[in-house]
Amino acid sequence: MTAVPDIEFRGVTKRYGAVTAVSGIDLAVPPSAFVALLGPSGCGKTTCLRMIGGFEQPSEGQVFIRGQDMAGTPPYRRPVNMVFQQYALFPHLDVEDNVAYGLRQARPRLSSREIASRAGEALEMVRLAGYGRRKIHELSGGQQQRVALARALVNKPAVLLLDEPLAALDKKLRTDMQIELQNLQREIGITFVLVTHDQEEALSMSDFVCVMNGGRIVQLGQPSEIYDEPADLFVADFVGKTNLLSGTVAGHSGDLVEVALADGTVIAARKRTALQQGEVVSVSLRPESLSLGAQASGPFKGIVRNRIFLGSTAEYAIEVKGIGTLLAKADHLIGHGNLFKPGEPVAIGFASGTPLAFAETKNNGANQRVDKHVEIIS
After folding, report:
1. Whose CA is closest to 145, among 91, 72, 89?
2. Which of 30, 42, 41 lies closest to 4, judged by CA?
3. For a Cys-Cys bond, which of 43, 192, 227, 365 suits 233, CB 3.0-4.6 Å?
4. Which CATH superfamily is domain 7-233+369-375 in?
5. Element (H or E) spanning 298, and its range?
6. pLDDT per position as a tens digit, 100-153
7. Which CATH architecture describes the domain 287-351?
8. pTM for this structure?
9. Any idea where the domains of the chain sit in the sequence?
10. Looking at the predicted structure, is the pLDDT value of residue 27 above 60?
């Protein structure tokens, strides 16, 4: 028996006057999933989050939470809580009173003992036991974020909505909080929905990534699938870094397509859709899929123009005649002296079948719809 989705969109469209923010979305999210809504500004991800939370109503279609149609149900009547980007904590209240605020609004009223007990449990859950009487201004940014989480979780929602909650944190603290959120979601076992425009955040935190653009779902899948097997040119270009090489289909070899590049080099690439002889395509090559060597062992030869040393890895901008600049990423092996210097010649290779070819479209796939209905399979 298939479990009832925690969240389901059926033909959901949202318009603001003449502007369509979300267009005909069908989506089913199973229980206990961690889902990231990822896309550029204006793609509709925040609008979807707000419709789940009840802050917006669909112009068309239905939003269900655990099988219940939420039409007309106000936010405070939904089994949902939200953590906002700016946390929205009350500065005049201490930590415990911030966490307990929602419990004090509950009807029928809860006893003071139960409120204190549940607030304490929520603070323990986010590893802030003993911080109850501290003022908000006495906390670090990461601690404030955990207070916001405890306040959202204390009412035991079915779904927790996260509206770019890590945007205000520095990089190291953001990484720490990504791990804490992952662990917390697994411990309490409720569905988390994260809205972000940060590709690394979406890929590292979630079980499933829903890539949106132009008010539509472009691709939905596990992070590795989104990164390794992008559905179209937009996803390939938006999620992570990639090199896009323009070329023309010169032939076919089994499941691969042969692409003639601008400099005359012919490479074999995988494809997501049927491609015709002579068709103009873009070939995606991830920087980490490129291998670099001092000897002429690859199809491309170039000159290192820039090197960005990142500690465990190094990124190179390599100028290839007739192709342009390629971005390559290589591991740095301490003590092996394997770093290339700007101005140094280098050969560039890649494994067979690594490139992925896409038909070039006017909007780079920005408004293409991959599936009429998308469902996460848990």
Report:
1. 89
2. 30
3. 365
4. P-loop containing nucleotide triphosphate hydrolases (3.40.50.300)
5. none
6. 999 998 889 999 999 999 999 999 988 899 999 999 999 988 899 899 999 999
7. Beta Barrel (2.40)
8. 0.87
9. 7-233+369-375, 287-351
10. yes
